[in-house]
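Quick one:
INPUT:
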C-alpha cells in the first residue's frame, strides 16, 4: 500500500526539525546524517529520498531553526518587543528541547561554509531585522537591536562564569530597552 501524499512532506519536516535542533546545538561538523536520522526516529536510507547531502540539509535547516526559535520566543509576548527581547536574551534558560536562535549560535560556524549557506543565514538575519523593525520602526535601531541581541547571546554561550553571563545579558537588555512598549 503506498504512503499517503502527506507522508513524504511530514517525513521531510521531521528531518528538518531534527537537523535544526542538532545543527544549532553542535554546528555543522558536530552532526552526522546518522545523528539527524536517529533524532528524527527514521532510518539513514530515508535521508537520501529527501536530501542529496548534509550540506543541502544544513542549508534548508537554518531557516527552520529560525522559525521554530521565533515561535518559542514569541510565546507570551503579547506583541511587546521588550518581553520578546527579554525572552531572546534569556533563551539559554529554556528547557532542553527549546530551539535556540541559529543566528547567534551558528555565527562562527556559518562563516566557514559555502556562499549558498551564507546567503541563507543572511536571509534569516534579514528576516530577524525586519521583525525587530516592525516593533521599533527605524531600520538603524532595528540593526543595532539585532546586533546587540545576537552578539550578547553568542558571547553568553562562550562564558563559564554564570554571574558574568547574567550581568552581560541584563546590561544588554537594559541598554536597548525600547520606549515604544
Amino acid at each position: 500500500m503506498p504512503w499517503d501524499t502527506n507522508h513524504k512532506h511530514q517525513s521531510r519536516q521531521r528531518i528538518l526539525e531534527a537537523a535544526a535542533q542538532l545543527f544549532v546545538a553542535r554546528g555543522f561538523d558536530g552532526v552526522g546524517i546518522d545523528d539527524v536520522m536517529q533524532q528524527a526516529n527514521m532510518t539513514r536510507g530515508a535521508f537520501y529520498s529527501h536530501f542529496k547531502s548534509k550540506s543541502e540539509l544544513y542549508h534548508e535547516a537554518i531557516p527552520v531553526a529560525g522559525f521554530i526559535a521565533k515561535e518559542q520566543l514569541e510565546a507570551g509576548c503579547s506583541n511587546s518587543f521588550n518581553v520578546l527581547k527579554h525572552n531572546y536574551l534569556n533563551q539559554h534558560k529554556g528547557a532542553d528541547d527549546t530551539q535556540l536562535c541559529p543566528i547567534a549560535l551558528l555565527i562562527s560556524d556559518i562563516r566557514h561554509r559555502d556562499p549558498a549557506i551564507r546567503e541563507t543565514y543572511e536571509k534569516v538575519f534579514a528576516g530577524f531585522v525586519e521583525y525587530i523593525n516592525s516593533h521599533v520602526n527605524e531600520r538603524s535601531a532595528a540593526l543595532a537591536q539585532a546586533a546587540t541581541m545576537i552578539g550578547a547571546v553568542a558571547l553568553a554561550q562562550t562564558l563559564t562564569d554564570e554571574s558574568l553571563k547574567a550581568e552581560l545579558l541584563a546590561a544588554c537588555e537594559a541598554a536597548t530597552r525600547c520606549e515604544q512598549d
